Amino acid sequence: MATFPKTEEEIIALANDVAGGLQTHSDIFPAPPVDALTLENSITAYASARDAAVSALAASKQATDDKKRALDQMKGELKRILRYAETTTGFDDTKLRSLGWGGRRERQPLAMPGQVLNVVSVEQGDDWIELSWEKPVDGGKVAAYDVMSRERLSEGDWNTVGMTTDREITLTSQETGKKMEYTVVATNKAGKGPAGNVVMAVL
């Protein structure tokens, strides 16, 4: 059994075949519910609508291309005018604002990072410890984190035992049998921020 076509091309081909068949074989199909002339008119109407749709699509693409070209031209003209205005006024912000523009923003120096938050011991073993923390909520952008340790209650300097750009680290080959303190410091080109809270551990 034949199945009704799905694509427009197949449907229009079938419609032409049916219209032609109705005209040629009126003896077989003397009283169809839609006569051949009506079907042919529908075929013609479809063809006109299809052609109009194709033309409209082409016109729409042309209009979009025209709009883009016009926008690009306007952008180029604006940039030329603004460069001229900046040079003419010496980047004077007040004068440039009369054009809805503004002077150069002063470059802000990089600030040191803020304090690392919530340093915790996630897990530990015989000579290793895994630490995690949260990034500072203030200060300059963090470039890296220095992880530091020292023996608990000692007044000695902190020793850097690791560095990472992540917010967690696993330190291996740590001193065992001693009460140790760990902390984390955020760093960038401007310097080091305040040390985070201290975590105590005996490995």
UniProtKB/TrEMBL annotation:
Matching SMART domains: FN3
Domain Fibronectin type-III: 112-203
Taxonomic superkingdom: Bacteria
InterPro entries, per database record: FN3_dom, FN3_sf, Ig-like_fold
CDD domains tied to this protein: FN3 (cd00063)
Protein name: Fibronectin type-III domain-containing protein
Species the sequence originates in: Candidatus Kentrum sp. FM
